């Protein structure tokens, strides 16, 4: 039995590989950068299998799945972790190609891989799918447009999988993290502008990849009768703000005069009815 983790070459995925292998699981780590996975293999040994896979391309997923060695081929855990945000521009300025890449990776890739792996879990009447959503799938923020929408998809897809998998013994959880540091997430989002990425984490203690990996291990170690549907994790330092209100022009001081004018004319009208 093995756990297939996508996005294993960096951030959360690499931490999950280390944590799960050390806890005794057999792990297949998938990503596009094979050299990073080979480094993990040197560190983790025979219980880890590196698998080059571009999840944004369904044909590449099919091809990669053919190269899983026999003793890793029974997959009873799938962690759909590969994903990315690109850009933080408003919807009227964002690069449409970035939107397509996020949809292709975060939605199509996750959905296609799940569809490929699920039948063997259902046939065995056991298995566990853990998806990496985000708080961006629940709480909107400026510039989160398509990234947040892809994570809202992941959230709802996870819940709908639970509905389809009723009675099969297959479990599904969606992990929804907030601000997390020590990953490549923001460097990717800001397209290599590492200074801008670093500013996000200045003087703040974000959630770390190990925190997410520990959460995954905890989920795996829950008894088979228990399903955690979703789990939202934020740094203590991150919280919620008031909803912004865009004030109308003319400025508020003009409003009482306008109100007086309107109510006087309404009063004149009503008076007219009783003449
Ligand atoms: N960090 C955060 O603040 C945060 C918060 C909430 C949710 N998340 C979510 O958590 C997940 C992991 O994020 P992270 O912070 O660990 O990011 P990260 O450090 O950038 O790692 C992303 C991983 O995804 C892989 N990946 C990206 N595109 C891929 C593709 N087309 N095919 C295969 N693998 C691909 C990357 O590997 P290759 O480049 O080698 O392919 C890398 O291993 C993502 O789904 C992200 O949306 C992150």
Kindly describe this structure.
With 275 residues, this protein is an alpha/beta fold. The chain has one domain: NAD(P)-binding Rossmann-like Domain (Rossmann fold). Helix content is 44%, strand content 14%. It has nine helices and seven strands. A seven-stranded parallel β-sheet has the order 3-2-1-4-5-6-7, sandwiched between helices. Helix 1 crosses helix 8 and helix 4 packs parallel to helix 5. The longest helix has 29 residues. It is globular. The protein starts with a strand and ends with a helix. The site of NADP nicotinamide-adenine-dinucleotide phosphate (NAP) has 30 residues, from helix 1 and helix 6.
Number of domains: 1
CA-CA gap between termini: 89 Å
What's the CATH superfamily, by name? NAD(P)-binding Rossmann-like Domain
Estimate percent helicity: 40-55%
Would you count the extended β strands for me?
A: 7
Protein name: SDR family oxidoreductase
Organism: Uruburuella testudinis
Keywords: Oxidoreductase
Family: Belongs to the short-chain dehydrogenases/reductases (SDR) family.
Summary of the model, kept short:
The protein has 275 residues and is α/β, with parallel strands linked by helices. The chain is built from nine helices and seven strands; from the N terminus they run βαβαβαβαβαβαααβα. The protein has a single domain, classed as Rossmann fold (3-Layer(aba) Sandwich), CATH 3.40.50.720.
């Amino acid at each position: 039995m093995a756990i297939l983790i996508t996005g294993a070459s960096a951030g959360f995925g690499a931490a999950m590989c280390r944590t799960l292998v050390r806890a005794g699981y057999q792990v297949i780590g998938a990503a596009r950068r094979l050299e990073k996975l080979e480094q993990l293999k040197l560190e983790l040994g025979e219980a880890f299998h590196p698998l080059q896979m571009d999840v944004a391309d369904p044909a590449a997923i099919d091809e990669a799945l053919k190269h899983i060695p026999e003793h890793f081929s029974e997959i009873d855990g799938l962690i759909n972790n590969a994903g990315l945000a690109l850009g933080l521009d408003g919807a009227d300025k964002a690069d449409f190609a970035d939107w397509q890449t996020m949809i292709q990776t975060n939605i199509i890739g996750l959905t296609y891989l799940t569809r490929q792996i699920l039948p063997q879990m259902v046939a065995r009447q056991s298995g566990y799918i853990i998806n990496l959503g985000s708080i961006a799938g629940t709480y909107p923020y400026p510039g989160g447009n398509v990234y947040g929408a892809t994570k809202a998809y992941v959230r709802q897809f996870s819940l709908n999988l639970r509905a389809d998998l009723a009675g099969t013994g297959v479990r599904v959880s969606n992990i929804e993290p907030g601000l997390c540091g020590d990953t490549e997430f923001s460097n990717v989002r800001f397209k290599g502008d590492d200074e801008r990425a670093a500013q996000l984490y200045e003087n703040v203690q974000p959630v770390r990849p190990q925190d997410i990996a520990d959460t995954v291990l905890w989920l795996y170690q829950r008894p088979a009768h228990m399903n955690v549907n979703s789990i939202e994790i934020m740094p203590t330092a991150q919280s919620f703000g008031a909803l912004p209100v865009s004030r109308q022009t003319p400025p508020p001081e003009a409003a009482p005069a306008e109100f007086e004018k309107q109510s006087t004319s309404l009063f004149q009208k009503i008076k007219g009815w009783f003449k």
